[in-house]
Amino acid sequence: MEDMRPEDVSGDYREAELTFYDGTRRKVLVTDEEVPYPDGKLIVSRTDTKGVITHANQAFVDMSGYTEDELVGQPHYILRHPDMPREAFADLWNVVENRQQWHGYVKNLRKDGCHYWVYATVIPNVRDGEIVGYTSVRRKPSRRKVEESEALYASMRGEED
Amino acid sequence: MSLTMTVSPDFSPDHISDWYIFNTCLQRRLDTGIHLELYSGFDEQRKAIANDEIDLIYANPFDAAMLVREKGFSAVARPGGKADEAIVAVSEDSDINDVEELSPGITVVSAEDPEVHLMGMIMLEPADLTRDNIELKQVQNYVLVAKELFRGQADVGFFLAEAYQDLSRMVRSRLRPLIESQISVIHHSLLVGPRLAGRREEIQQRLVEMSEDEKGRGVLDTLGFDAWEPIEQEDTEFMIDLMDTLGA
């Protein structure tokens, strides 16, 4: 996966390097700016069993800052924000691979270095008894939940370091 | 074999005669007698489904998921150019201007429509409102939702967006939408029951063909559809997955 490029980012940013579960590394550029989740919308995407995006709805495209072509075919971790603890995603994969629904509050990174918070639900798509992919739906979280999650994730990251 | 068709009770009363006209048209095209049975509420309709009295149904996705999973129905087609959206509204004279100004303990009025209720509750989540910290009043239809609001008996109400637009101008003038969903991926669909499983392809073809002639287009137009779009098995599976995530 390509590193983020300074020309795509607006304003001051910090750099971080992320290492994903499959060993892929990516340099990300992060600003402090939050983009509010749009009222009344749902972000919907689907992935294959490896977490590679196969479908993205317009709300996903709009909020991520990428084009649909830039998203489809990429791992879902293209949206990973360095403030998210690794443990949260490990938990997600454990849950959905056991055919359960996962819910959680997630800080997502946009192409322009800004972020947006979502309340995400991920479910396995079971066809003829086999998991063939995953569907994720994101909706607008409350500010209280965002603040609680920020504090929780900061402490989880502290333990990971 | 006598067949029975029904329509989700969330449709506007203005469309009762349109559904009878649609049924007449469908009977001619299938060369089969179909009785249209319209129920005034979801409870009554669910009893008929439980008793295996229904063969064709125009259902909201919440009910469609149940029909596919539990009753062996199969989705055939959905209306083109039409998605299900919900509106959260308040009385015109309410002090509330934004969903996030709502507090726990408010009274929410909802019609007995599981899909709209689900979408409405999702739109209250940014205010930290859940079924555990609101008072819920359920009424029979959207006109009663409106009345509860402007009589001051409830703080917010949920409407199917289409039903909100179908309210009379006078009723709408006494309401104010706080938020309207823009989900775009939730649709009603027409499903066939197990007794029609062998005619699924034929029914789908006749429905899709409806928009190809003037008479068929006229019938669809009165229902507010552009055309019937075919639904494949994977579309149905996706819809069920989606309803599962929303109900979570």
SSE inventory with pairings:
The complex is a heterodimer of chains A (161) and B (248).
Chain A: E1 14-19, E2 25-30, E3 43-47, E4 53-56, H1 58-64, H2 68-71, H3 86-97, E5 102-109, E6 115-127, E7 130-139, H4 143-160
Antiparallel strand pairs in A: 1-2, 3-4, 3-7, 5-6, 6-7
Chain B: E1 3-7, H1 16-30, E2 34-36, H2 42-50, E3 56-59, H3 61-71, E4 74-79, E5 86-91, E6 107-111, H4 114-124, E7 135-139, H5 142-150, E8 156-160, H6 161-166, H7 169-173, E9 175-180, E10 189-192, H8 200-209, H9 214-223, E11 228-230, H10 233-246
Parallel strand pairs in B: 1-2, 1-3, 6-7, 6-8
Antiparallel strand pairs in B: 3-10, 4-10, 4-11, 5-8, 5-9
End-to-end Cα distance of chain A: 24 Å
- The H-level CATH homologous superfamily of chain A, spelled out, is PAS domain
What's the overall geometry of chain B?
globular
**Strand-pairing-aware structural class of chain B:** alpha/beta
**Class of the largest domain in chain B in CATH?**
Alpha Beta
Extended strand count of chain B: 11
How much helical structure, as a percent, in the residues of chain A?
A: 25-40%
At CATH level 2, the architecture of the largest domain in chain B is 3-Layer(aba) Sandwich
CATH class of chain A: Alpha Beta
- Indicate the multimeric state: heterodimer
The radius of gyration of chain B is 19 Å
Distance between the termini of chain B: 40 Å
Q: Could you give the order of strands across the largest sheet of chain B?
A: 2-1-3-10-4-11
**Could you spell the SSE succession of chain A in H and E letters?**
EEEEHHHEEEH
Total of helices of chain B = 10
The poorly predicted ranges of chain A are none
User: What name does the CATH topology of chain A carry?
Assistant: Beta-Lactamase
How many domains would you count in the coordinates of chain A?
Answer: 1
State which percent range the strand residues of chain A make up: 25-35%
CATH architecture annotation of chain A: 2-Layer Sandwich
- Sheet with the most strands: spatial strand order of chain A: 4-3-7-6-5
